[in-house]
Amino acid sequence: MPSSETQVPAQERVFAERVTRLYASESTALLATFVNAFILVLVLWGETQSSRLLGWLGVLYLVSALRFVLSRRWSRDLTEPAACRRARTWFVSAVLVSGLVWGAAGVLLYPAQSLPHQVFIAFVLGGMVAGASVAYSSFLGAFHAFALPALIPLFTRLLLAG
Question: Which domain holds residue 73?
Fold first, then answer.
């Protein structure tokens, strides 16, 4: 039976690999963010105030740029357990903020007068969450940090609207 001394390093290696996989998926996740956000704004143009659309897009692109910088910073420093824990915390915090911005789209960009555009917003948010389920599969906390704030605002709005 292995001693606890040999298990701890193995657990740390597994944890480091899980965090490494989070950062490895970040480029694809950010590309999907940029493309889907741009498409969402194009589709909603004329249905939602352009200032809201451009403001939301600007905030999302800024958050995404910060995620990119964090990704480059932390993906090179995953050799020590303490660094892995910090890298995971930064990653989860960044995807939480990204999820909040996506969730804001379900409220701020919601065109009350156009059911097809409402459905499109739901489709895009659902697609982003589906992509996050793959991209963040190595750490369930990262998925929840993105998915819950991305979906709850629109879900709540739809429930209240009847």
Answer: 12-161
Residue 2, in any domain of the structure: no
User: Is the CB of residue 93 less than 8 Å from the CB of residue 119?
Assistant: no
Q: What is the pTM of this model?
A: 0.89
Closest CA to 94 of 154, 15, 29: 29
| pLDDT, position 7 | 59
How many Cα atoms occupy the beta-carbon half-sphere of 2 within 13 Å? Answer: 8
Contact between 131 and 32 (Cβ < 8 Å): yes
Contact indicator for 103, 149 with CB cutoff of 8 Å: yes
Residue 7 belongs to some domain of the structure: no
The count of structural domains within the chain is: 1
Name residues whose C-beta falls within 8 Å of residue 38's C-beta, 6 or more positions apart in sequence: 57
Predicted confidence (pLDDT) at residue 83 exceeds the cutoff of 90: no
Buried/exposed code over 100-115 (b: 16+ C-beta within 10 A; e: otherwise):
bbbbbbbebbbbeeee
The predicted-structure confidence for 143-155, as pLDDT tens digits, reads as follows 999 999 999 999 9
